[in-house]
């Protein structure tokens, strides 16, 4: 028989087998669009605006449906009720981290963000404890953020009120806070070591948010065989690994277990305490990936939110004026803002919440997975199945937030002008996998923005009406368009 015929028969059999397996699996899972062999529904999803695609699917299949992004199914939860039922009411069952092959390639299940099981629980417990009880060097995290806010002011004054792109400066500030927490010391914004670290983190953020990364994660076989930005990502993480280990070595030489100075010291103390444990989780390699997770989560997301915040404040000068009026009334011009002020500033609090709601930074959240075979709304979801939770569907719910596409601080104010909480406010996710750095991020947003508005008027070189606030990418992260801003000192 001709070789071509044999190959054709083999491929046909493999195709039929793939179709049969998909059909058998689909009968148990929630409904969804019919997938194509091998590539699944990938052609039906806009990788630059996944949220829009999920919204369209939900109109057809309801709040719980299945997509095949490649050969593997992912159960999508759309709307507050479905997301809450999974992440909060049944949090333990949905606490797994979904497949993220590019990360798994070099992190090997370590760190916090992309880990599972006991390692995830231990690293999360330690990181939360350390961030909450930060008495290291007798300085609280708030002290560190306030110091950085003062340094940020000095950098902004150097712009002399001229138009500038704030991306770099707004990236330096949160990155320096993480450096202070992990390494004890902050850097000058022109320090070359710091600039190299910033470049590395910024490049990683762009690559992780690219459509190509979505392709790599859904077709992991290409990671080993095709060129692309994923290879640059691997090189960048190698750099970060060596950088973090060099800091650890220096800390080991001067460690005082009775006076931990920073995150590294606390980690080294844990390493010493469990050195005789055969299943120890506190290792050098685990430190590297835990630290890299804190850098990634604490730098890129916060700086992007700050950048988006200033764009929205430029676009809505009447909102900016009301915030500055509240700052003058509560804080004045002669002392630094502190977190205690926030409870006396309902309008500012509402603005910060509305910024995070409106920009919808992580539209589809990070992927979850179920930790066991479960029955969910009369569907059977096998252990390990990836679960996608649409944060957009909650943050932009039109019943909770009338006209959700409009930027309106009134979404978080009652009729008396008091701050109004909402269970639908989940920009940091919810449940067992809620962001470890939520408290730090909220602190930075409040202290950085109030400090800026306390000292500068914001001016746009173009008419505010002409500013576009539509994200230029809306895949993994919502990225704001570039813009120019003038910081005019009072």
From TrEMBL:
Annotated positions binding heme: 435
Record keywords: Endoplasmic reticulum, Heme, Iron, Membrane, Metal-binding, Microsome, Monooxygenase, Oxidoreductase, Signal
GO molecular function: heme binding; iron ion binding; oxidoreductase activity, acting on paired donors, with incorporation or reduction of molecular oxygen, reduced flavin or flavoprotein as one donor, and incorporation of one atom of oxygen
Keyword Signal: yes
EC identifiers of the protein: 1.14.14.1
One Pfam entry name: p450
Topology versus the membrane: Peripheral membrane protein
Name assigned to this protein: unspecific monooxygenase
Gene name tied to this protein: LOC103732445
Family per similarity comment: Belongs to the cytochrome P450 family.
Cofactor field: heme
The keyword Magnesium is assigned to this record: no
Organism classification: Eukaryota, Metazoa, Chordata, Craniata, Vertebrata
Position of the signal peptide: 1-25
Any one biological process term the GO annotation gives: xenobiotic metabolic process
InterPro entries (alphabetical): Cyt_P450, Cyt_P450_CS, Cyt_P450_E_grp-I, Cyt_P450_sf, Cytochrome_P450_fam2
Entries under Gene3D superfamilies matching the protein: Cytochrome P450 (1.10.630.10)
GO CC term, one of those recorded: endoplasmic reticulum membrane
EC category name: oxidoreductase
Subcellular location: Endoplasmic reticulum membrane; Microsome membrane
């Amino acid at each position: 028989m001709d070789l071509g015929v044999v190959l054709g028969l083999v491929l046909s059999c493999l195709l039929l087998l793939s179709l049969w397996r998909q059909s058998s699996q689909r009968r148990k899972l929630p409904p969804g669009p019919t997938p194509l062999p091998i590539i699944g529904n990938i052609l039906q999803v806009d990788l630059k605006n996944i949220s829009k695609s999920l919204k369209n699917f939900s109109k057809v299949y309801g709040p719980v449906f299945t997509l095949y992004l490649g050969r593997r199914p992912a159960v999508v939860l759309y709307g507050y009720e479905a997301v809450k039922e999974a992440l909060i009411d049944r949090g333990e069952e949905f606490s797994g981290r979904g497949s993220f092959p590019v990360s798994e390639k070099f992190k090997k299940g370590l760190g916090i963000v992309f880990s599972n099981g006991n390692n995830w629980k231990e690293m999360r417990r330690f990181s939360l404890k350390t961030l909450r009880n930060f008495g290291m060097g007798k300085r609280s995290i708030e002290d560190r953020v306030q110091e950085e806010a003062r340094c940020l002011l000095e950098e902004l004054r150097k712009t002399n009120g001229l138009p500038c792109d704030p991306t770099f400066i707004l990236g330096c500030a949160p990155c320096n806070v993480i450096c202070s927490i992990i390494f004890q010391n902050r850097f000058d914004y022109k320090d070359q070591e710091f600039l190299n670290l910033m470049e590395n983190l910024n490049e990683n953020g762009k690559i992780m948010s690219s459509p190509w990364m979505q392709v790599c994660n859904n077709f992991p076989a290409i990671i080993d065989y095709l060129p692309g930005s994923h290879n640059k990502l691997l090189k960048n993480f190698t750099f970060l690994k060596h950088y973090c280990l060099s800091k650890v070595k220096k800390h080991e030489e001067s460690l005082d277990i009775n006076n931990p100075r920073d995150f590294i010291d606390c980690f080294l103390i844990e390493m010493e305490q469990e050195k005789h444990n055969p299943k120890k989780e506190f290792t050098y390699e685990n430190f590297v990936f835990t630290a890299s997770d804190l850098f990634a989560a604490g730098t890129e997301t916060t700086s992007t939110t700050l950048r988006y915040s200033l764009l929205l404040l430029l676009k809505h000068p009447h909102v900016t004026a009301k915030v500055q009026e509240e700052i003058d009334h509560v804080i004045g011009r002669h002392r630094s803002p502190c977190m205690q002020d926030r409870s006396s500033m309902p309008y500012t609090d509402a603005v910060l919440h509305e910024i995070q709601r409106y920009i919808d930074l992580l539209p589809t959240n990070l992927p979850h997975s179920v930790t066991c075979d479960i029955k969910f709304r009369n569907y059977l979801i096998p252990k390990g199945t990836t679960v996608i939770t649409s944060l957009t569907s909650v943050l932009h719910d039109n019943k909770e937030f009338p006209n959700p596409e409009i930027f309106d601080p009134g979404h978080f104010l009652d009729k008396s002008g008091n701050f109004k909480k909402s269970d639908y406010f989940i920009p940091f996710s919810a449940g067992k996998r809620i962001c470890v750095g939520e408290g730090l991020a909220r602190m930075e947003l409040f202290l950085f923005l109030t400090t800026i508005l306390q000292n500068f008027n914001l001016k746009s070189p173009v008419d505010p009406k002409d500013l576009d606030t539509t994200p230029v990418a809306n895949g993994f992260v919502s990225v704001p368009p570039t813009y120019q801003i003038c910081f005019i000192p009072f």
